[in-house]
């Protein structure tokens, strides 16, 4: 009966088509007509005051079109030229108008950039400082900086452009006449060209309500004219809450509808015998009609037709079925809380990883598509690229990722690829830094991973990291009433506070990453039933040894802990950092960004100088070893022997932090 229903629906759809064409367009729909400004199309959430009504856009997204046909937006007390708007990715690329010319323009003054995170997020966050009229001594203390010029009237003023990653504005007080913080995209900067990166501008993602569903239905987004808070979908013939209706008519056209309906009924009467004949042929197995019915299915080759759903590439179910050899078990790469992953090869030669989501893992296809749009906009060199997904009409929801060929970190530490000594300490520290970088980026994008573990950290052939399954939990319920249906972490990595409040936060990712750090140090799995009952969890095993300063019992002996000073110091410092991450109270854990910065400091520390210093101290101890102990030393020794003083929590890595656990959890 499917063919008959299609004919009926097709016939019925004729009447609304003729009726709607005979009516005048809705005024709100006309008011929100997109406008062109240079190469940009201006539509929701943006609007041009005077050309479009204020209810056609979102507050804070007002733009102007200047005499040069440049789209201008005001942010943080400065004007920015909009170079490109990508509605499918909800992103825009902007450049401070003062930086568009060949030299920086001091007038009007450039202000420190602040971002309203309720409206925008940085895509590739980087921060630089522009310093004016600094003292020569201060310039020398900076080390590396880039000189630039600033034009103020006819006067050229020297500027310094420096990376702000390890600095704060207070350092410049009294040393420079003027200093401002400006953003840039990290991906657009090489090692020295800070000022060049600033001139190229940066990319922002907007996070206000998504208009894709309304736009897909032929409507234009806006807000209720009276409340100014309730989002509306302005359609050609009326306003609706979310989307333009596909069927149904207003009372104004009932009479006309009846007339056309009679004609449609007659058409159906004539078409019915033909439909029944087609149905008979289908049931008899006529190969010609079976093939035709498949081609009409929602799984037809979307990819070959280049379909894109508001910025999200769509793959056909049939193509992915073929790419994975009908989801052959031999193609299986792994499985987890969200679904099973298969290796696949597309017709264009690309190798992909296809995640086949468990049926219980999604509820609303619409929500699924909206969230995939968010995930595809996340771009970071250490995140697995999400290529796209199957369409909302597909028989299964599949996610398509880039294929990362060298397995997981777990494989190399204690799995099928593990070989003693094959993963050097330098490689392991690099894995830790790159993973922390990716997680820090996710947290800055207000996304919590919720399942950080070595099985979700993939490696390419050069042992560079790709974090997988990031943000997948966005696709599933995370509130308390649905805990049983949503993947919420993995035993051995799970935040102990989860069992109290049933919520995972950014600090939960920090806890899980602490377990990952211990795995990198020890080469031991997060869960081992053969360990002592109280140390089955690697976190308990590690905390016990770190508190006793028994690092030699924790660190993998193949790393050279006993023979290599640098390895011994670095692994000890990373263990101390892991200790902070594994605190049961999340308020005492550092943020992911602080962890990332600490790992960078460990990697760049001058361990040769530290070794010389320790050797000098050791020589002094030897020279004074024959002297009688002081009264204070006697008291200290006695207290330790009586177990009245416990060793403090290791904090040597944390001493240089600007903030100690004062950042609220996300």
From TrEMBL:
<dbReference type="InterPro" id="IPR032872">
    <property type="entry name" value="WAK_assoc_C"/>
</dbReference>
<dbReference type="InterPro" id="IPR000719">
    <property type="entry name" value="Prot_kinase_dom"/>
</dbReference>
<keyword id="KW-0732">Signal</keyword>
<dbReference type="Pfam" id="PF07714">
    <property type="entry name" value="PK_Tyr_Ser-Thr"/>
</dbReference>
<keyword id="KW-0472">Membrane</keyword>
<keyword id="KW-0067">ATP-binding</keyword>
<keyword id="KW-0723">Serine/threonine-protein kinase</keyword>
<keyword id="KW-0812">Transmembrane</keyword>
<dbReference type="Pfam" id="PF13947">
    <property type="entry name" value="GUB_WAK_bind"/>
</dbReference>
<dbReference type="Pfam" id="PF14380">
    <property type="entry name" value="WAK_assoc"/>
</dbReference>
<feature type="signal peptide">
    <location>
        <begin position="1"/>
        <end position="24"/>
    </location>
</feature>
<feature type="binding site">
    <location>
        <position position="355"/>
    </location>
    <ligand>
        <name>ATP</name>
    </ligand>
</feature>
<feature type="transmembrane region" description="Helical">
    <location>
        <begin position="253"/>
        <end position="279"/>
    </location>
</feature>
<feature type="region of interest" description="Disordered">
    <location>
        <begin position="643"/>
        <end position="666"/>
    </location>
</feature>
<keyword id="KW-0808">Transferase</keyword>
<keyword id="KW-0325">Glycoprotein</keyword>
<dbReference type="InterPro" id="IPR001245">
    <property type="entry name" value="Ser-Thr/Tyr_kinase_cat_dom"/>
</dbReference>
<keyword id="KW-0418">Kinase</keyword>
<protein>
    <recommendedName>
        <fullName>non-specific serine/threonine protein kinase</fullName>
        <ecNumber>2.7.11.1</ecNumber>
    </recommendedName>
</protein>
<feature type="domain" description="Protein kinase">
    <location>
        <begin position="327"/>
        <end position="602"/>
    </location>
</feature>
<keyword id="KW-0547">Nucleotide-binding</keyword>
<dbReference type="InterPro" id="IPR017441">
    <property type="entry name" value="Protein_kinase_ATP_BS"/>
</dbReference>
<dbReference type="InterPro" id="IPR025287">
    <property type="entry name" value="WAK_GUB"/>
</dbReference>
<dbReference type="InterPro" id="IPR011009">
    <property type="entry name" value="Kinase-like_dom_sf"/>
</dbReference>
<keyword id="KW-1133">Transmembrane helix</keyword>
<dbReference type="InterPro" id="IPR008271">
    <property type="entry name" value="Ser/Thr_kinase_AS"/>
</dbReference>
């Amino acid at each position: 009966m499917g063919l008959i229903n299609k004919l009926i629906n097709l016939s019925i759809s004729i009447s609304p088509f003729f009726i709607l064409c005979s009516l005048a367009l809705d005024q709100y729909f006309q008011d929100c007509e997109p406008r062109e400004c240079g190469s940009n199309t201006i539509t929701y959430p943006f609007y041009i005051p005077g050309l479009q009504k204020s209810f056609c856009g979102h507050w804070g997204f007002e733009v102007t079109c200047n005499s040069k046909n440049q789209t201008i937006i005001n942010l943080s007390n400065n004007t920015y030229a909009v170079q490109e708007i990508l509605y499918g990715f909800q992103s825009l690329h902007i450049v401070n108008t003062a930086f568009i010319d060949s030299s920086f323009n001091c007038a009007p003054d450039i202000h420190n950039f602040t971002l309203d995170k309720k409206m925008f997020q940085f895509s590739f966050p980087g921060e630089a400082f522009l310093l004016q009229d600094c003292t020569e001594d201060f310039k020398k203390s900076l080390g590396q900086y880039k000189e630039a010029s600033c034009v103020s009237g006819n006067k050229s003023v020297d500027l310094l452009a420096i990376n702000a990653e390890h600095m704060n504005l207070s350092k410049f007080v009294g040393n420079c006449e003027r200093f401002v913080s400006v953003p840039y995209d990290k991906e657009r900067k090489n090692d020295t060209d800070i000022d060049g990166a600033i001139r190229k501008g940066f990319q922002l993602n907007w996070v206000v309500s998504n208009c894709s569903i309304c736009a897909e239905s032929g409507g234009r987004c806006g807000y209720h004219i009276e409340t100014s808070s309730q989002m509306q979908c302005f359609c050609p013939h009326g306003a609706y809450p979310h989307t333009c209706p596909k069927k149904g008519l207003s009372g104004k056209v009932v009479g006309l509808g009846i007339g056309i309906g009679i004609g449609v009924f007659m058409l159906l009467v004539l078409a019915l015998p033909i439909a029944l004949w087609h149905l008979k042929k289908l049931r008899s197995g006529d190969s010609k009609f079976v093939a035709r019915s498949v081609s009409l299915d929602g799984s037809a080759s979307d990819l070959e037709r280049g379909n894109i759903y508001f910025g999200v590439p769509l793959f056909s179910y049939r193509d992915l079925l073929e790419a994975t050899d009908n989801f052959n078990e031999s193609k299986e790469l792994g499985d987890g809380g969200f679904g099973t992953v298969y290796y696949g090869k597309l017709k264009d030669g690309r190798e992909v990883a296809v995640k086949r989501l468990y049926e219980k893992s999604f509820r609303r296809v619409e929500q699924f598509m909206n969230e995939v749009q968010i995930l595809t906009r996340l771009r970071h060199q250490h995140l697995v690229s999400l290529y796209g997904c199957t369409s909302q009409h597909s028989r299964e929801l599949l996610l398509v990722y880039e294929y990362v060929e060298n397995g997981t970190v777990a494989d190399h530490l204690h799995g099928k690829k593990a070989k003693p000594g094959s993963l050097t300490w330098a490689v392991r520290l690099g894995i830790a830094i790159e993973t922390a970088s990716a997680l820090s980026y996710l947290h800055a994008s207000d996304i919590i991973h919720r399942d950080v573990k070595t099985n979700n950290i993939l490696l390419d052939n050069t042992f560079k990291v790709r974090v997988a399954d990031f943000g997948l939990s966005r696709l599933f319920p995370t509130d308390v009433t649905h805990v049983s249906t949503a993947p919420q972490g993995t035993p051995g990595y799970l935040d102990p506070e989860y069992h109290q409040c049933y919520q995972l936060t950014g600090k939960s990712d920090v806890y899980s990453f602490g377990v990952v750090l211990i795995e990198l140090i020890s080469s031991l799995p997060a869960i081992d039933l053969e360990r002592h009952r109280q140390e089955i969890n690697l976190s308990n095993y590690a905390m016990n040894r770190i508190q006793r300063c028994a690092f030699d019992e924790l660190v993998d002996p193949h790393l050279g802990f006993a023979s290599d000073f640098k390895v011994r110091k670095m692994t000890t410092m990373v263990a101390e950092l892991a200790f902070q991450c594994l605190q049961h109270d999340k308020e005492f854990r550092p943020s992911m960004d602080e962890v990332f910065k600490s790992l960078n400091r460990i990697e760049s520390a001058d361990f040769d100088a530290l070794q010389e210093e320790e050797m000098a101290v050791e020589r002094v101890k030897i020279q004074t070893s024959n002297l009688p102990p002081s009264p204070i030393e006697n008291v200290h020794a006695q207290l330790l022997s009586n177990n009245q003083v416990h060793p403090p929590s290791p904090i040597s890595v944390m001493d240089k932090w600007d903030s100690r656990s004062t950042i609220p959890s996300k």
